[in-house]
Amino acid sequence: MLGSTHGTLTTHSRPARVVACGEQRPHTVHGTSEPHPGGGGQGTDALDRDVSGRPLQAPVPDLDRFFRPESVAVVGASDSAGRPNTGITRQLIAWAERVGARLHPVNPGRAEVFGRPCHATVADLPEAVDLAVLLVGDPLPVIEQLAEAKVKFAVAFASGFAETGERGAAAQDRLAEAVARSGLRLLGPNTNLNAFEKFRTDLDGPAIALITQSGHQGRPVFSLQELGIRLSHWAPTGNEADLETADFLSYFATRPEVGAIAAYVEGLKDGRSFLLAADRAARNKVPVVAVKVGRTETGARTAASHTGKLTGADAVVDAAMRQFGVIRVDGLDELQDTAALLARARKPLAEGVAVYSISGGTGAHFADLATAAGLRLPTLGDAKQTELHQWIPDYLSVANPVDNGGHPVGDWRGPKIIDALLADPSIGVLICPITGPFPPMSDKLAQDLVAAAERTDKLVCVVWGSPVGTEDAYRSTLLGSSRVATFRTFANCITAVRAYLDHHRFAAGYRSPFDDAPRVLSPSARKARALMRPGQQLSEHAAKQLLRAYGIRVPREQLVTSAAAAVRAASLVGYPVVMKASGPQLAHKTELGLVKVGLTSASQIRDAYRELTDIARYEDAPLDGVLVCQMIERGVEMVVGVTRDSLFGPTVTVGLGGVLVEVLRDVAVGVPPFGEDQARAMLGELRGRALLDGVRGAPPADVDALVEVVLRVQRMALELDGELAELDINPLVVLERGQGAVALDALAVCP
Q1: How far apart are the first and last CA of the chain?
Q2: Of the given ranges (291-300, 428-437, 501-510, 664-673), which has the lowest mean pLDDT?
Q3: Of 506, 514, 518, which is closest to residue 282 (Cα–Cα)?
Q4: Of 223, 437, 230, whose CA–CA distance to 333 is shortest?
Q5: Could you write out the DSSP letters of every residue in 408-477?
Q6: Mean pLDDT throughout 373-384?
Q7: Domain's final residue, options 606, 630, 654
Q8: Are 121 and 62 in contact (CB under 8 A)?
Q9: 175, 264, 338, 487: which could form a disulfide with 217 (CB 3.0–4.6 Å)?
Q10: Which helix (H) or strand (E) segment is 386 a member of?
């Protein structure tokens, strides 16, 4: 610490149905196809890589022979009455017949199973098989046999692995290592028969592909087939010792029959793999709808910085999904309705929503909820309102929502009103909430809506609010239409329509951030690495040198080790000045009284120096000196930081800074890589965004400069991944437009 004012420097030793307008979208497969080191598909060796050596495109495993094998072995097959394996064997035989596969039972204790020749071992099979289903308690001993027989895929149903705790996790690790050596790909363990369900083959149109870590949670989506909605695949990933959610996501995103992917995710195996898979889906314009439950483990953090405390694991998952267009919903009913709508609905011709109802109260209620959720209900033009008043009494509002008063739906006027609304160029979606059956009005209205949906390329939605659901208008008229999207609740309709519009807007402007991810280290990284101190927290002075290396502006300042030097520095920096103690153990200096602001004279400088060094000595906090800094008095205080998530790696946080960061906790998270558009979108998520536009007479702040700082911090996070555990710039003062942004304080932690 600093010993005296003369100061020689010494050192001390962180359930409803949706059917909508059909359209099958074209798909483009990105990347080259090479053998996967674990069984087939696109190998990562051929893919472009970033500065950390990580691939920039998702490998696509060739899962065709998993879902449509030519030959199948059932290891542990049985036909003994009352045994669980018997029922599974029977189901697999039926499935193999449906997909045209040859099935071979394997069991050393039987000569035949269900009349089929049974083989003692996999080595005794009469042909090479594509898929082996393991009905054994311990699949590990069988893996080597499968490898020798060159089996492509295996499914392990056995439980007792990572889901049971530490011992089970160790057993799963051993299984995963054996699979990696074998060359095959494994589904499971702790999975089930969902991949081998009986799918309806009489349905057409784009399909939903389903991924679930819990088989039972996928059952509601699978049941959509009974309402006429096609499903093409079901991947029950289980414990994901090998094949994971990201593998199936990448594969489904390249399948021409898949219109949308629905996923129920309890935990992600690898964040980077998930991002690459979501990126592939976004490139191919395939919507992904997901229920994500649970919380990730964020790993050990020093949590010295504000951002380390504020960035929760689920906030990172949410940000990652949003960046890559994954639509996150909360319930299985929302998953059904949203995925079905996105799979089957045509691209919107306009983003405006018209609400049309029998009752003014119903329309107003729905319009309030829709507007609050962010849907745009444009006011219909005077000419359109005049046209509607030909059929609707003048005393009723037709501005949007449109109230028909009830009686027009029962005669010739009903179809004309619907057609007139759909003809308005500002309207892309027509929603008709029917809160309950009221024959003949509701029946006739349903018929007219179905007929209109056949005549238009625009989306027609109906909310059938009756809790009974047995009415003919619902069961036959609405559910019998492949062009009307039918919901049972206001909330699910609004969620699905918002997701539909958001997805197409996102897809139209999507550019993969991986395309612009840095491939080589910048000169800044080489400068920064010389400043890193493994296992240490950098002092403010050293942290600011790190920012300077990446072109981030800091105030004019000098580090001094005596009162006399402080006075000389103040005259060079220019009064008034700020003085701060600088040392590697000082995370929050203000609370300790180690910051002095507004100093305007040499005597104040000498007194402040003496007081700062005395406090540091009392707190036993070693210093590398005292900073004499330019005082920046005007601007919007922000925080920009880096933390490391155990799943996704480095993450970037931006929010309101200064004292507001801990009081309001108004922050947004970005998962690198991302571009300028995403950086600006992060600012748009802040509740206090208006402060940057200027409030109470303050001039607009330099948002462009703030965005540039966020992008430079992102580059730092990517290039120093593994060397920088945490970074906190707080406050970053954003000056008036055109004047830039200045990092007044910084903290950096090396792992």
Answers
A1: 24
A2: 291-300
A3: 506
A4: 223
A5: GGGSTHHHHHHHHHHH-TTEEEEEEEE-S--TTHHHHHHHHHHHHHHH-SSEEEEEE--SS---HIIIII
A6: 98
A7: 630
A8: no
A9: 264
A10: helix 382-388
pLDDT at 47: 59
Is it the case that residue 44 has pLDDT exceeding 80?
no
pLDDT value, residue 216: 87
Confidence of residue 552 (pLDDT cuts 50, 70, 90): very high
Q: What is the CATH number of the domain that holds 618?
A: 3.30.1490.20
- Integer angstrom CA distances of residue 249 from 208, 278, 442, 478, 505: 12, 7, 41, 32, 21
pLDDT in tens, 223-236: 999 999 999 999 99
365 and 433: one domain?
yes
Q: What is the pLDDT of residue 585?
A: 80
Task: Kindly tell me if the per-residue pLDDT of 42 is higher than 60.
Answer: no
Contact criterion met (CB below 8 Å) for 609 and 566: yes
DSSP helix/strand/coil, 464? strand
> DSSP state, 473?
I
502 Rama class: left (phi>0) / alpha (psi -120 to 50) / beta: alpha
Cα four-point dihedral sign 170, 172, 177, 178: positive
Tell me how many degrees the CA angle 545-551-556 measures, rounded to the nearest 5.
Answer: 55
Buried b (16+ CB within 10 A) or exposed e, 179-209: beebbbbbbbbbbbbbbbbebeeebebbbbb
For residue 221, pLDDT over 50 is answered with yes
Contact 325, 506 (CB under 8 A): yes
- 403: tokens are 């109230």
pLDDT above 70 (res 675): yes
Same domain assignment for residues 690 and 726: yes
- Of 343, 366, 398, the residue at which a domain comes to its end is 343
- Same domain assignment for residues 644 and 746: yes
199: nearest Cα among 226, 175, 177: 226
Q: Cα–Cα distance between 192 and 189 in angstroms, integer?
A: 9
Question: Which CATH number goes with the domain that contains 249?
Answer: 3.40.50.261
Whether 176 and 208 share a structural domain? no
What are the structure tokens assigned to 439, written together? 């024959």
Q: Could you tell me if 482 and 468 lie in one domain?
A: yes
Number of domains in the chain: 5
Three-state secondary-structure class, residue 638: strand
Sign of the torsion angle spanned by Cα atoms 534, 535, 541, 546: positive
Hey, what are 297's tokens?
């483990």
Tell me the residue type at 343: A
**Chain-wide mean pLDDT for the chain?**
89
333 and 362 in a single domain? The answer is no
Query: Which residues contact residue 122 at a Cβ distance below 8 angstroms, ignoring those fewer than 6 apart?
Result: 73, 75, 106, 129, 132, 142, 145, 146, 148, 149, 151
Question: pLDDT digits over 567-604, tens only?
Answer: 999 999 999 999 999 998 887 788 888 999 999 999 99
The per-residue pLDDT for range 73-129, each reduced to its tens digit, is 999 999 999 899 999 999 999 999 999 999 999 999 999 999 999 999 999 999 999
Residue-number span of the structural domain to which 370 is assigned:
352-509
Q: Which residues contact 604 (CB under 8 A, 6 or more apart)?
A: none
178 shares a domain with 207: no
Q: Which of 324, 323, 312, 261 is nearest to 291 (CA)?
A: 261
